[in-house]
Amino acid sequence: MAPGLPDRVDCVRLAEEAAVLERVFALADLPRLQDVLAEPRGSVAARYAFDLVDGRHAGATVSIEAAPQLLCQRCLMSFAFPVSVSSEIEFASSESAAPVDSPREIYVMSNGLVSLRELAEEELLLALPVIAACTTPETCGRAPALDADTADAPKRPFAALQEMLKKT
Length: 168
Fold this sequence. Notes:
The protein starts with 7 loop residues before the first strand and ends with a helix. By secondary structure, the protein is an alpha+beta fold. A hairpin with a 6-residue loop joins strand 6 (69-71) and strand 7. The chain has four helices and ten strands, in the order βαβββββββββααα. It has one domain (8-167).
């Protein structure tokens, strides 16, 4: 995130102004993701388009794009998992004040403020698979192919031992 830009924002005011904010967060700065990631490098780009839902409640369309490195549970190798999702969110001041019939996801504010970093982290967590697996199962965990000459040669693990025995 650029220095000087606030993380916690008043989403009611931003919704009244129909503001659009864009932020980029380092994956290493998202603590709830650390157990899921194979490597904490990379970033998540987030876009927040605030609006009023039914003309009275604060809401936003949150879009994120990232390619975090996950650990495949089949081959235990790292792979990039591209994510590009968008969610419709409605903000509520408390659990009891949340509308029960809203078609949008409900996000509870803390003292009227929302952390943009936590919101992006939440959206990314929801977009990741429960069990990470390579996107192409037919090549999952395979080593690069050998040369054609060596691939067809018979395997002789004790050839060196045989040569040593001949010398004695």
